[in-house]
Amino acid sequence: xxxxxxxxxxxxxxxxxxxxxxxxxxxxxxxxxxxxxxxxxxxxxxxxxxxxxxxxxxxxxxxxxxxxxxxxxxxxxxxxxxxxxxxxxxxxxxxxxxxxxxxxxxx
Length: 107
What we know:
- The chain has 107 residues and is of the alpha+beta class.
- The protein has helices spanning 13-18, 26-35, 48-59; strands at residues 19-22, 37-42, 63-71, 74-78, 82-86, 89-96.
- The protein has a single domain, classed as Alpha-Beta Plaits (2-Layer Sandwich), CATH 3.30.70.
- It has a 4-stranded antiparallel sheet with strand order 1-2-6-3. A two-stranded antiparallel ribbon has the order 4-5.
Protein backbone atom coordinates (compact mmCIF):
# COMPACT_ATOMS: atom_id res chain seq x y z
CA UNK A 1 0.00 0.00 0.00
CA UNK A 2 1.74 3.11 -1.23
CA UNK A 3 0.81 6.48 0.17
CA UNK A 4 -0.83 8.69 -2.39
CA UNK A 5 0.30 12.28 -2.61
CA UNK A 6 -2.56 14.73 -2.35
CA UNK A 7 -1.91 17.86 -4.37
CA UNK A 8 -2.69 21.02 -2.46
CA UNK A 9 -5.36 23.01 -4.23
CA UNK A 10 -4.42 26.52 -5.18
CA UNK A 11 -6.26 29.42 -3.55
CA UNK A 12 -9.04 31.01 -5.56
CA UNK A 13 -10.11 34.64 -5.77
CA UNK A 14 -12.90 33.87 -3.30
CA UNK A 15 -10.33 32.70 -0.73
CA UNK A 16 -8.48 36.01 -0.98
CA UNK A 17 -11.77 37.94 -0.69
CA UNK A 18 -12.74 36.24 2.58
CA UNK A 19 -9.69 37.54 4.50
CA UNK A 20 -9.63 41.36 4.39
CA UNK A 21 -6.85 42.50 6.76
CA UNK A 22 -5.17 41.61 10.06
CA UNK A 23 -6.34 43.28 13.27
CA UNK A 24 -3.24 44.76 14.91
CA UNK A 25 -3.55 45.57 18.63
CA UNK A 26 -1.50 44.75 21.70
CA UNK A 27 -3.92 41.99 22.64
CA UNK A 28 -3.88 40.34 19.20
CA UNK A 29 -0.09 40.47 19.05
CA UNK A 30 0.20 38.74 22.45
CA UNK A 31 -2.36 36.11 21.31
CA UNK A 32 -0.25 35.51 18.22
CA UNK A 33 2.95 35.02 20.21
CA UNK A 34 1.65 33.11 23.21
CA UNK A 35 -1.31 31.05 21.95
CA UNK A 36 -0.63 30.80 18.19
CA UNK A 37 -3.86 32.67 17.33
CA UNK A 38 -4.24 35.09 14.43
CA UNK A 39 -6.94 37.78 14.40
CA UNK A 40 -8.18 39.05 11.03
CA UNK A 41 -11.02 41.12 9.65
CA UNK A 42 -13.21 38.97 7.38
CA UNK A 43 -15.96 39.46 4.86
CA UNK A 44 -19.43 40.08 6.32
CA UNK A 45 -20.94 36.97 4.71
CA UNK A 46 -18.09 34.63 5.71
CA UNK A 47 -18.71 31.71 8.07
CA UNK A 48 -16.32 29.46 9.99
CA UNK A 49 -15.93 26.96 7.17
CA UNK A 50 -15.11 29.71 4.64
CA UNK A 51 -12.49 31.24 6.93
CA UNK A 52 -10.89 27.86 7.70
CA UNK A 53 -10.74 26.89 4.03
CA UNK A 54 -9.30 30.28 3.02
CA UNK A 55 -6.58 30.17 5.71
CA UNK A 56 -5.54 26.63 4.82
CA UNK A 57 -5.33 27.45 1.10
CA UNK A 58 -3.76 30.92 1.27
CA UNK A 59 -1.25 30.39 4.09
CA UNK A 60 -0.73 26.61 3.81
CA UNK A 61 -1.27 25.90 7.52
CA UNK A 62 -3.56 23.55 9.45
CA UNK A 63 -6.36 25.39 11.30
CA UNK A 64 -7.62 23.81 14.52
CA UNK A 65 -10.29 26.33 15.57
CA UNK A 66 -12.10 29.41 14.23
CA UNK A 67 -14.04 31.86 16.40
CA UNK A 68 -16.06 34.63 14.73
CA UNK A 69 -17.17 37.89 16.38
CA UNK A 70 -19.44 40.59 14.98
CA UNK A 71 -18.04 43.92 16.21
CA UNK A 72 -20.96 46.39 16.40
CA UNK A 73 -20.86 49.92 15.00
CA UNK A 74 -20.29 52.75 17.50
CA UNK A 75 -21.38 56.36 17.65
CA UNK A 76 -18.68 58.87 18.43
CA UNK A 77 -18.21 62.60 18.70
CA UNK A 78 -15.70 64.49 16.62
CA UNK A 79 -14.32 67.39 18.61
CA UNK A 80 -17.26 67.39 21.01
CA UNK A 81 -19.59 69.02 18.51
CA UNK A 82 -19.95 66.72 15.53
CA UNK A 83 -21.36 63.23 15.69
CA UNK A 84 -20.02 60.39 13.63
CA UNK A 85 -20.02 56.63 13.47
CA UNK A 86 -17.33 53.97 13.47
CA UNK A 87 -18.54 51.19 11.20
CA UNK A 88 -18.95 47.67 12.52
CA UNK A 89 -17.19 44.64 11.04
CA UNK A 90 -16.77 40.90 11.40
CA UNK A 91 -13.53 39.48 12.74
CA UNK A 92 -12.20 35.97 13.12
CA UNK A 93 -9.75 34.57 15.67
CA UNK A 94 -8.05 31.61 14.00
CA UNK A 95 -6.04 29.06 15.99
CA UNK A 96 -3.20 27.53 13.99
CA UNK A 97 -1.87 24.02 14.70
CA UNK A 98 1.00 23.86 17.20
CA UNK A 99 4.37 24.05 15.47
CA UNK A 100 3.08 26.08 12.52
CA UNK A 101 3.05 29.86 12.19
CA UNK A 102 1.81 32.61 9.89
CA UNK A 103 4.01 35.57 9.02
CA UNK A 104 1.64 38.50 8.44
CA UNK A 105 4.45 41.05 8.13
CA UNK A 106 6.42 39.85 5.11
CA UNK A 107 8.76 42.41 3.64
